[in-house]
Write a structure and sequence with these properties.
- This is Pyrroline-5-carboxylate reductase.
- With 270 residues, the protein is an alpha/beta fold.
- It contains 12 helices and 8 strands.
- Strands 3-2-1-4-5-6-7-8 form an 8-stranded mixed β-sheet, sandwiched between helices.
- The longest helix has 21 residues.
- The chain binds 1,4-dihydronicotinamide adenine dinucleotide (NAI) and (2S)-3,4-dihydro-2H-pyrrole-2-carboxylic acid (A1CAB).
C-alpha cells in the first residue's frame, strides 16, 4: 500500500507533478492535493479524480508533503502546517531559493526536509529534478524523493550549495530555449517564411539538436563544427552571434538567475 503523498499548492509545477505521478501509476486515492481556490479544486477533482483537502488535513494524513507554492508564500504555508507536522513526515520543497534550513527552522525539530528543483518538462516525463538533503533527511528520504520525481524525468543529487546554480540552469532552463525558439521564429518571418512553417522548422531543429546532444556522445563544439561548412551559411550566423556577445549575454543571464535564487533564500521576496 503506497504511503499517501500530498501536493500543497497545485499550480503549474504542482499540477505537472500530480499528473506525472498519476501517469506513472500512483492511484488518485493515494494522492492528496491542496489549493486556495474552490474553482481550482473542482478542476483538479474532474481532471485527476483527486480529493482536494485543507493544508492542515494534508499534513495530518500524508506521509510525504510536496510544497509547491511560490517562495513568497512559503513562510505563511509553513506557519499553517507547523502545528500538524511530526518528524515522521517527509517535507519536500520545490520552491526556488528556499533553503532546507528556512523550512527546518519553522517545523518541529528533526523534521526531514528535501529540497528539489524540478522543471516544467515533468509534464511530458522529460523533467530534470535536482535534489538536495536537509540536515535530517536520510538516504531513504532521498530515495523516496527520487522515486517520486524520477517518475516524470531524470533526477540528480547535488549538495545544497549548488542548488541556486542548478535553479538558474535547469529550473529556469526551458524558458531560455522557448525564448530562442520565439526569436528564431521571428527571424524566419523576417526572411519571408509564414509563421507556422518557421515555428515548425525551428522546433524540429531544436528536437533534432537535443537528441544529438543526448545520444551522439559528441561534444557540442564538434556537433556545431559538423554543421559549419567552410565559407558556408552557418559561419556567417555564428560571426553575428559572436559580434553581438550572445555567449556573454547567456552567461550574465544565468548569473542573474542564480543571484535571484540566492535573494529568495535570504528572504528578499519582493
Ligand atoms: N514554474 C516553473 O517552471 C517552476 C517552478 N518552481 C517552483 O514551484 C513553485 C510553484 O511555482 P508555479 O507552479 O510556477 O506557481 P503557481 O503560481 O502556478 O502555483 C502555486 C500555487 O500555489 C497556490 N497556493 C499559494 N499559497 C497556498 C497555500 N497556502 N495553500 C495552498 N495553495 C497555495 C496558488 O494558488 C497556486 O495555485 C515555486 O516555488 C517555484 O519557485 C520550481 C521549478 C520550476
Ligand atoms: O522563475 C522561477 O522563479 C521558477 C523557478 C525555476 C523556474 N521557474
Amino acid at each position: 500500500m503506497p504511503q499517501p503523498v500530498a501536493v500543497l499548492g497545485t499550480g503549474k509545477i504542482g499540477e505537472a507533478l500530480l499528473s506525472g505521478m498519476i501517469r506513472a501509476g500512483w492511484a488518485p486515492a493515494d494522492l492528496l492535493v491542496t489549493t486556495r481556490r474552490s474553482e481550482r479544486a473542482a478542476e483538479l477533482r474532474t481532471r485527476y479524480g483527486v480529493d482536494p483537502v485543507s493544508n492542515a488535513d494534508a499534513a495530518k494524513q500524508a506521509d510525504t508533503l510536496i510544497l509547491a507554492v511560490k517562495p513568497q508564500d512559503m513562510g505563511r504555508l509553513l506557519d499553517e502546517l507547523a502545528p500538524h507536522i511530526t518528524p515522521d513526515r517527509l517535507v519536500i520543497s520545490a520552491a526556488a531559493g528556499i533553503t532546507t534550513s528556512f523550512i527546518e527552522e519553522r517545523l518541529a525539530d528533526s523534521t526531514p526536509v528535501v529540497r528539489v528543483m524540478p522543471n516544467t518538462p515533468v509534464l511530458v516525463d522529460e523533467g530534470m529534478s535536482v535534489i538536495s538533503a536537509g540536515s535530517h533527511a536520510t538516504a531513504a528520504h532521498l530515495a523516496h524523493t527520487e522515486a517520486i520525481f524520477g517518475a516524470v524525468g531524470k533526477t540528480l543529487r547535488v549538495p545544497e550549495t549548488q542548488q541556486d546554480a542548478c535553479t538558474a540552469l535547469s529550473g529556469s532552463g526551458p524558458a531560455y530555449f522557448y525564448y530562442l525558439v520565439e526569436a528564431m521564429t521571428d527571424a524566419g518571418i523576417l526572411l519571408g517564411l509564414p509563421r507556422d512553417k518557421a515555428h515548425d522548422l525551428i522546433v524540429q531543429a531544436a528536437i533534432g539538436a537535443a537528441v544529438m546532444l543526448r545520444d551522439s556522445g559528441e561534444h557540442p563544439v564538434k556537433l556545431r563544427e559538423n554543421v559549419t561548412s567552410p565559407a558556408g551559411t552557418t559561419i556567417n550566423a555564428i560571426r553575428e552571434l559572436e559580434n553581438h556577445g550572445v555567449r556573454a549575454a547567456l552567461i550574465a543571464a544565468l548569473e542573474a538567475a542564480r543571484d535571484r535564487s540566492r535573494e529568495l533564500a535570504s528572504g528578499n521576496n519582493s
